[in-house]
Amino acid sequence: MTKSTPLYLDDLAVGDEFRSAEHHLDEAQTIAFAREFDPQPFHLDAAAAQHSFFQGLAASGWHTAAVTMKLLVASVPFGSGIIGAGGSIEWPRPTRPGDTLHVVSKITAITPSRSKPDRGLVTLDSETRNQRDDVCQHVVMRILVMRRPA
Fold this sequence. Notes:
Elements: E1 17-19, E2 23-24, H1 27-37, H2 41-44, H3 46-50, H4 61-75, E3 83-90, E4 100-112, E5 119-129, E6 135-146
Antiparallel strand pairs: 1-4, 2-4, 3-6, 4-5, 5-6
């Protein structure tokens, strides 16, 4: 799918796939995000992180989620935006400073609304992968998608 063409409910099919651009995460970004939003030692201090569960500096899962959202907005061109309607999120491995992330997404379900014919719910399964193609985040989200305007 091309990024420049806005997509609406009627344009989508189960199985459609999207791949984002890349985002490189460095130590300064990791610490800045953690300092403001998730100030835990294993996100803030490399030495302290060595003695944690992560055995090294790890980006906050919420930082990975924020990067994922940025990459999704640019790569999944829903004409009505990415309007969340619920879902689940997992972090099977930590995102580390030095990782270069990209998102691979696939539509797994489309459910037109019975009561509001101008919209439907799309289930999008997205994996945020690092440069080795390891999955750092897996999110399944339901997204409100509008039909093409008249």
